[in-house]
Design brief:
114 residues, 3 strands, 64% helix, three-stranded antiparallel β-sheet
């Protein structure tokens, strides 16, 4: 099974990031964000969940559970994109997208083209 990987480069440093849905980000949203140092996104998520919790006191706890599920779905869909944006903010430049069976093979493919 092949996946798409984004190759990012900065001053001879190379990062390989997988694209697409992340099940780990879906199931472990806040922990996943903290592990990947996505502080801004984690703060936004925390504020969203806090507001949802406060609203659930008036509207019912279903609102809170729905907001948790929706936020987990958003993390699953866009978590890897958030990480790539973080790399770009740190000065990395996306140079190529490669379809490969693993990140290691994607890196080897990219380096063989250089």
């Amino acid at each position: 099974m092949t996946n798409t990987y984004c190759i990012l480069e900065k001053e001879n440093k190379i990062k390989v990031s997988k694209l697409g849905f992340s099940w780990l980000a879906f199931f472990f949203s806040p922990v996943w964000a903290l592990i990947h140092s996505l502080w801004k996104e984690f703060t936004i998520w925390f504020l969203f969940v806090s507001i949802s919790y406060l609203l659930s006191k008036k509207l019912g706890e279903e609102v809170f559970y729905l907001s948790l599920f929706l936020s987990s779905f958003i993390w699953g869909l866009f978590g890897r994109d958030f990480k790539i944006q973080d790399y770009i903010t740190c000065g990395y430049i996306p140079v190529e997208f490669i379809n490969s069976s693993s990140g290691r093979n994607a890196l080897l493919t990219y380096l063989s083209k250089k």
